[in-house]
User: What shape does this take?
Amino acid sequence: DVLKTSARTVLFAAASYTGISALGYIGLVYYVSYATRVLGLPLPTVLAPLLAAAVVFAASVVACARWSDRIGRRRIMLWGNAALVVWSAAFFPLLDTRSIPIIWMTLSVMLALQGAYIGTQPAVFADLFPASIRYSGASLSNTLGTIIGGAPAPFIAAALYDMWGASTAVGVDITVMG
Assistant: This one.
């Protein structure tokens, strides 16, 4: 029923989720491999800022969801995504400093900005579909966005790094995805 009546909406919503999903998988999955393999940092040093950033992310999701009720979901989502595009361009150059405080800040800002999308996304997706297909439409959109954007992102990042030998190509990729 969802695809019969709302296929275009599903594709639009899924497309909006591909970038945030790709950035999420880069920040949560590829970062660990990159920081240990390329930057040569010990695993505990790599995971500690990621755990701290996860706490920032959780707070950002709640704060942005509440904020969006006051000033508008689309506004929060769009401003958050715009800031995320800018931050994506700086993400790898900041990681490449190998400075632990800068890495903590880099991951925390990346995940805080993702919270602007994730905090608003459930309500935005729910508004896109009539009640009879709301759950299926939102779920299918989210799943397709993850499969298309998030799932391949770490593999693409690793291939780009191996091909170019520098994080610049990966930074361009995540900026475009953002």
